[in-house]
Amino acid sequence: MATLLRSKLSNVATSVSHKSQAKMSGMFARMGFQAATDEEAVGFAHCDDLDMEHRQGLQMDILKSEGSEEGGEPPLEGDIHYQRDGTGPLPPSASKEACSELSGQGKPKITAWEAGWNVTNAIQGMFVLGLPYAILHGGYLGLFLIIFAAVVCCYTGKILIACLYEENEDGEIVRVRDSYVDIANACCAPRFPTLGGRIVNVAQIIELVMTCILYVVVSGNLMYNSFPNLPVSQKSWSIIATAVLLPCAFLKNLKAVSKFSLLCTLAHFVINILVIAYCLSRARDWAWDKVKFYIDVKKFPISIGIIVFSYTSQIFLPSLEGNMQNPKEFHCMMNWTHIAACILKGLFALVAYLTWADETKEVITDNLPSTIRAVVNIFLVAKALLSYPLPFFAAVEVLERSLFQDGNRAFFPNCYGGDGRLKSWGLTLRCALVVFTLLMAIYVPHFALLMGLTGSLTGAGLCFLLPSLFHLKLLWRKLLWHHVFFDVAIFVIGGICSISGFIHSLEGLVEAFRTNAED
Question: Three-state SS across 323-374?
Fold first, then answer.
């Protein structure tokens, strides 16, 4: 009996220890960016698994003790092997009970305000610096598109979350899927059960890698324009930036980087306010007559991609909604975050364009006077360099999971050894990915073109096309006629914008690539 009591106390202490670790991890995760939140979620799930194993091991010990004391039959072999260290199999019935008992324990949840902060980080990032350039080629139609994109992305975010739920036998709405990939696979089942997930993964990898390239491009561009008198070219600044970023290949987690994300985001908001304040100080010289009612047919499709790319957040919304304390507040959170983004982006783009008119550059801070440009740009470069590890680490995780760690379906051997350490050739591949982002930034150092291409290719696909298509496929029997109309309209308009923007952006990139190759 004394042994049983000691065993109980030991397991309870272990359970409390794991829960406290999960709470501390949750506290740090809430201070970070969304990528940090996803990375921490792995730790929370691991703590939950350990907690479940210890509880079930305790139950097995109790059953064994009761059976031996009462002279009952000895437990099954599988029960005997299942000890508190989790080495034995878990009975199916006990597994279900444990999962239902512990589903809401140990995993920290976030409030609607914290979820809104994560969405704001995604759609109010430093890529808003390219929006005034979109107004240059789109005029008032560009402003309308900023509003239109906010409305559409808010709607597609909501219908994407609706695809996670289905009615059970009792008529209750329950969550049956957990991610964008699960939704895509459900749409392609049963003929191609993994095709949809692979398409989403490819789109995600392209978007993440292109985001890394954009960070290198914007770093080289800002440093070159901040110190034009130095004998250092933009390409050389990009190489220096990449040399600073090379240690990202050795990252095991994002805990160290995520601590700086909140500070960087706040600094970026301050920089935006400084730019707007400077523009307001020149309000008397605003060129209202320069705002066009017509568009530049050749360059406006690129502007569409820039605007769409600045609103991309759908890829992590399922995970975010699943971690909310009250998922019913998701729709309200999406409304106020996108309304705020629409107002701030529209004002920022319009005010900046009115200040510099036809002289508006791809990155608006390059238009600032040299006295304050260097200070502002250095802060932006610091933010870009500290933001680079987030999409880089996410891209590496997707690549490793898809190509090296997918069990028997993996294309290549596992890049991790038996002790969990990264193999040398796996580290080489990570370094090669960093170098690839540098090469793209050197040969195509055009912020607007790359941003437009990414927005037209993956941004429109992940934000417009796929959510509306999945919504029609999974829930078409329950949709009202106006929902069907909206989904079809978004799919058609998004497809047209995506194709036209992609073609024009690709033409511009090819031309820029040829020019750089000749030089």
Answer: CECCHHHHHHHHHHHHHHHHHHHHHHHHHHHHHHHHHCCCCHHHHCCHHHHH
